[in-house]
Specification:
Blueprint: E1 6-9, H1 13-26, E2 30-34, E3 45-47, E4 54-56, E5 63-65, H2 68-74, E6 87-91, E7 94-98, H3 102-109, H4 115-126, H5 137-145, H6 147-162, E8 192-194, H7 200-208, E9 213-217, H8 221-224, E10 234-236, H9 240-243, E11 253-263, E12 273-276, E13 285-288, E14 303-312, E15 321-322, H10 326-341, E16 345-347, H11 349-352, H12 359-380
Parallel strand pairs: 1-2, 1-10, 2-9, 6-12, 10-16
Antiparallel strand pairs: 3-4, 5-8, 6-7, 11-14, 11-15, 12-13, 13-14
Helix pairs in contact: 1-12, 4-5, 5-6
This protein binds flavin-adenine dinucleotide and sodium ion.
């Protein structure tokens, strides 16, 4: 470690962005480690051997951002296709467009509704909860969109996501349920959206291609922690509870089991993401990866689909979504106080801050941390943590 200026734990978007900035702007030596066998963190994707189709190993990743700085930054490392995400949902053998919009509402109630008529209808159905404070997720959802739409599109899906009856889930999990009184079914509203032209992993290869960045894969931070020189500056993007040996308790996460299958058809479902709202269907959704890249000439007789099953994570599982119960919040605050006291360690990224971050948010947070923590550390000797 004699010539390492900064150790970065985790080669996802947070760690890779800091590594790129430190090498290119500061010409400092970076050692970037990841316990996985690849760079890219959860945004990693690979071209399937049999079909050549790009598969996102850790779940579908759609890039979108309202943030000009992040968009400009990332465009230095990749071009983007003009893919615009859309989602459909199967319920009782019918297919509806998501998020709930005028098309969904008209189809569901089986009549033509003007925007004003649809608004009045939903308000009328939501009035069931008028004057009462929602005591659980079900009541909260009904107060927002009424019972019929809730029971069709939210109840079963939410129950499967959380493996819990929505009446037993806290109401604060949902603050809003978007309903659009237009036929617009674009999933994201952000100014910028698209998929990386030659795949996600190529972004990371370009970000990290620098003589001052050394990458060590298959290396777990905790197996070398005791041999590090004292005071070595570290950017840590692994789980914060693991860093402190779970001494304040374990933070709750949900994980997803992915069931991948190659089928002998050129098109299984006609679009990339199909939700399954019925509780009797065990998976929450099916991804069909070829549809993310209609501009590519994939072979026509095979397709790759992935079924997603949601459940709470145990320690050996991949942590995907913070559960963030009140107890989790308390536990996290205790870890955060201890993290602040580690002057040579900066905790970042989704695992290091116990927050769900979209890719653009992870990159944006890393660019900010570079300016506010990393740069002052190297320029003025300030503590990085
Ligand atoms: P990560 O990408 O998780 O990187 C952290 C890295 O640290 C990992 O590679 C891990 O192996 C490594 N690490 C952890 N502990 C250690 C250790 N002890 N030693 C060495 N290495 C370690 N975002 C979007 O914008 N659009 C989407 O559509 C989208 N879909 C998603 C779907 C799923 C299922 C999930 C889980 C996330 C999705 N995201 C999406 C979010 C996106 O994955 C994150 O924004 C991004 O991964 C955050 O980057 P990060 O660097 O903070 O964390
Ligand atoms: Na710190």
């Amino acid at each position: 470690f004699s010539n390492v200026d900064l150790l970065i734990v985790g080669a996802g978007f947070y760690g890779a962005t800091i590594a790129e900035r430190v090498a290119n702007q500061l010409q400092k030596n970076v050692l970037l480690i990841d316990r996985r066998s690849h760079i890219g963190g959860n945004a990693y994707s690979e071209f399937d051997n049999e079909t050549g189709i790009e598969v996102h190993r850790y779940g579908a990743h759609l890039f979108h951002t309202p943030n000009e700085t992040v968009w400009t930054y990332l465009n230095r490392f990749t071009g983007f296709t003009d893919y615009k995400h859309r989602v459909y949902s199967t319920y009782r053998d019918q297919v509806y467009s998501m998020p709930i919009n005028l098309g969904t509402i008209s189809q569901f109630f089986n009549r033509r509704l003007s925007p004003d008529q649809a608004r009045a209808l939903i308000a009328d159905q939501a009035a069931e909860m008028a004057g009462r404070n929602p005591a659980n997720l079900e009541e909260k959802a009904i107060s927002l969109i009424g019972r019929p739409l809730y029971e069709a599109f939210i109840r079963g899906y939410t129950a499967k996501q959380w493996q819990t009856d929505p009446r037993d889930l806290p109401e604060h999990i949902i603050t809003r349920l978007p309903v659009r009184y237009t036929f617009d079914n674009r999933y994201f509203n952000d100014k910028y959206e698209g998929l990386p032209i030659d795949g996600y992993t190529a972004i990371f290869e370009r970000m990290l291609k620098h003589p001052k960045i050394n990458i060590a894969l298959g290396v777990d931070f905790f197996s070398l922690k005791s041999s590090l020189p004292p005071g070595l500056p570290i950017v840590y993007t692994g789980p914060i509870d693991r860093y402190f040996d779970y001494s304040e308790g374990e933070l709750g996460w949900r994980t997803i089991d992915f069931e991948k299958e190659t089928l002998n058809t050129g098109d299984f479902q006609g679009m990339a993401v199909m939700n399954y709202a019925d509780e009797t269907v065990p998976y929450t959704r099916i991804l069909e990866f070829r549809h993310f890249n209609p501009e590519r000439s994939y072979q026509t007789e095979k397709t790759v689909v992935v079924r997603e099953y949601s459940r709470s994570a145990r320690r050996k599982d991949e942590p995907y979504y913070p559960i963030d119960t009140r107890q989790d919040k308390d536990v996290f605050l205790r870890y955060r106080a201890r993290a602040e006291a580690q002057t040579n360690v900066h905790f970042g990224g989704r695992l290091g801050t116990y927050r769900y971050l979209d890719m653009h948010q992870a990159i944006g947070a890393a660019l900010k941390a570079f300016e506010s923590r990393v740069l002052p550390h190297f320029a003025e000797g300030q503590a990085i943590g």
